Amino acid sequence: MVSASPTPDWDVLVIGSGIGGLVTASQLAAKGARTLVLERYLIPGGSGGSFERAGYTFDVGASMIFGFGDKGHTNLLTRALADVGEHCETVPDPAQLEYHLPGGLSVAVDRDYDSFVARLTRLFPHEARGIRAFYDTCWQVFNCLDAMPLLSLEDPAYLAKVFFRAPLACLGLARWLPVNVGDVARAHISDEQLLRFIDMECFCWSVMPADLTPMINAGMVFSDRHAGGINYPKGGVGVIARQLVAGLERHGGAIRYKARVTKVLLEDGAAVGVELASGEQIRAKRVVSNATRWDTFGGRPGSDGFVDKPLVALEDSPKAETTWRRRYKPSPSFLSLHLGIDAAVVPDGFHCHHLLLEDWAEMEAEQGVIFVSMPTLLDPSLAPAGHHILHTFTPSSMEHWQGLTPAQVRAKKQADADRLIARLEAILPGLAGAIHHREVGTPRSHRRFLGRMGGSYGPIPALRLPGLLPMPFNRTGIKGLYCVGDSCFPGQGLNAVAFSGFACAHRIGADLGLNPWALPA
Asked: Between 300 and 157, where is the model more confident?
C-alpha cells in the first residue's frame, strides 16, 4: 500500500492503448480531463493495430470492422473519431464474409439484407419463414440499440434521460438482456444444419456457439452488417488507433510508449496511481485498466496459469472478481499467418473475408475453424503492386505451446503453418506456391506483444449464462479503479470495446463532474 498522498499528476491514467482504452482516454480528454495513456509496446491499438513488413501493412487482428456507418447510434468508431475531430476514410465491403462449411454448404453474407435472406432461403427453402423470423428478431434488438446513445449503464442520470427519450427502446432492450441466440434460433428453426450455420454465424466473432452467445451482441452484428455495413479503414486497421491518439493529443492528453505498468498503487483501499517496470510512480485521480481482468486482478495461486504478477494482488482484489472467474474462462488465442502472396492466385470475385471448416465436430477444437482476411481486395495500397495480403488465423490454446524448447517451437510453427496453408488450398488452389512473404504468430506472440493472459481473445462463458446480465461493467470493487475492453460489457470486437470505452469515459466523467447535461444527438 502507498502511504503518502501527493498531488495527482493526472486526472486519469489509462493502462493500455487498445481501442477500448483509447476511446476512454480520447473521450475524457475531450471532456477536459488531463489524461495519460501508458502503453507497453511501440505502437497503439493492441489487437486493433497494424505493423509493416517488406512493403506490406499487416493488421494485427481481423479486418472485418463494424461501427463505421454514418447513421444512428451504433456507428461507435465513426462517433469516437468525430468527437475528437478525426475522420477515417473507409472502403465498403460488399459482403461480410463467405462461409465454406461441411457438406458443401457455401454461403456469402451480402451487404444487402434481403439478398442475404433470399440466398439463405434458396439453400433451406423449407425454413423460409423461420429464417426471416429469426433475422427479423435480430433487427428488433438492433433497432432498440440504435434508438439511443450508447453510454454508461452504471449512470442513473443517463438511464433516466435515455428512458425519457426512448422508453419503448429501453423496455425492448431490457427484454433481450438475459437471452442467448440459441433459444431464439430454435424458437423459429428446426433444421439441424441451419442451426449449425447459426452456431457458426455466432462463432465467427464470439468464438462461442449460439447457446452461449448473448442475443444483444447478435442483434448488433447480424444487423449492423446490413445497416452500417462492413467498412475497411483505408491504410489499415491501425489507422483507427493512430487517429484516436491524434485526437487525444489535440485535446491535451498524452500517450507514453514502452511504459509497462506493473502495479496499481492503492491507498486506503482506493486506486491512486500506477508503478512502471522502471520503478517510476505516476499518480492520478482515477485509473483505468485496459488489460484483461485476469491481468488486472490476482486470482487463486496457480489458477490463472499465465499471470505471474497481476496489477492488483490477490489480497487486494475484490470478491466480485472471484465470482467473475467462476462464470467466465479465457477463450483460446490464435495461430496467425501473415502472408504476402502473388495476386494471380486470387480468382476474380473473391471476397475479402472467409471462414473455412471441414467437420462440424471440429468447430471448437484446437485449430478447427480457419478465418481469412484479404484487405488488399479493398485497399490495394497495403501491398506491393501485383501482390495481396492474406491474413489467416485459427484458434489455438497456449497449453499446446508451453513446455517446448525454442527448436520445438520453430518446428511446430513450421508444421502448423504448412498444414493451415494446405487446408486453404481448398478455396485458393496454388496458394502454397504463391507465397512471397510469411510470418507466423502463436499464442506466445499474442501474450508477448499484446500483454494478454495466455494470448487469449477474451472471456467466454464457463457455463451457460443468461445473456449479457452477468458481464461486469466499468466500475470495480476498488474505488477509483475502472476496467475497459473485452472483459467488460458487452464483450469482444472493436465496436463492442468502443462501446465499453464510451461507457467508461461517461462513468468517470460523471464521477469527476465533467459530463454535459444533454444527451448526444
From this structure: 157
